[in-house]
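REQUEST FORM: STRUCTURE PREDICTION
Request ID: SP-0412
Submitted by: Lab K.M.
Chain count: 1
Length (residues): 420
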Amino acid sequence: MRFLHTSDWHLGRSLHEARLLEDQAHLLEGILAMARDLKPDFLLIAGDIYDKAVPPHEAVELLGDFLARLILDCKVPALMLAGNHDSAQRLGFCSRLLSAQGLVIAGSLAAARKPIVMQDRYGPVDIHLIPYAEPAHVRELYPEAEARGHNEAMGAMLGNLETDPGRRRVLACHAFVAGGLESDSERPLAVGGSGAVDASLFEGFQYVGLGHLHRPQKLAGPGECHYSGSLFKYSFSESSHQKGINLVEMDSAGACRVERVPLSARRDLRRIEGSLEELLRPADGAGREDYLEAVITDEGPLLQPMERLRKIHPNMLHIERPYLSRGGSGGRVSAGDHRAKTAADLFGTFFRTVSDRDMSDAETEALAGVLAPDGESVISTSERSIGSAVASVSAAAPGPASEAGMAAAREKAASGRESA
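STATUS: Completed
RESULT:
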């Protein structure tokens, strides 16, 4: 038997306000090409078909078109299950009717008891589809199980499957299995460790096709236990991942050979790093349209870095400034009564928070030149004097002009508000 295993399409997802539907459609074309060339017995989709329980209509249309071409044109059945991002009821609409046409949808936990029986030249193979099993829903279905966490919930689901010990068995489910490596783009299933499932529960299955984690990986445990990974890179923590799909071939004894088949994205998702001057150099034609995150290494204030970078890299989505976040205080001023401090003291604290260093002698001298001789308190210092202090210190410091200094201050202040 030969089949393809994929998961975590998240159709309709956006990244930093960039809509990814065109990129997803391109990747689904790649899966259709695989289906035509490899002629698998079926396609297995292990959950998170959509990104939201109520997906945008464009995502629904994209899935409908893909499934019609896969099943009607390529003659490849599809078996899919609901993940934690999906609405099991919406995804499973008309599932009994559609199963007769080659589209099997596992949305209901109760329907997961019975396997889907597929035939190859060696005989029957039981395919068990378990959608995302929220412990509360499992307790309603199996009150005696007392499933308080995801491990007990999965154990209850597996313990109630209708099985034939003499048959080869494949399991597909959507869960966080202990030992799996996470990415930034996954939605946590539970607080703490209660969301993890132990791989030892999968004893007796020749292949376990998992969904939920976006990094493709093989887990230690009984049989072949694999996450296929997500369709696309949905966070910059995945920039090093090679996205693809698993081609699984099972022999008469149930032994599985798993081959990783890469998918070619329309645009890649990459991190670039360097000074702003380096990153503003004209980009090569190849990769110019990629989605980018810039890690800017400059240690001084910068004027409108995003706007300038987007003139060279039109799909620049995010900027990281390690210089602004490495301070131990995280942008927070130390406790103390500000009324007892002079304007010079308060400005020094402000400068240290923004620049992660103390003022130089030249900067201190420039500040003293615009403050009252007695270093009067900030309460009696006019707003204009503080503005003059910022301008004078920026002029005394080597580097960009005062407007850039104020931009850095605003950037740092915004960073502090977001972390609060």
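NOTES: Residues 21-38 form the longest helix (18 residues).
Reviewed by: T.R.
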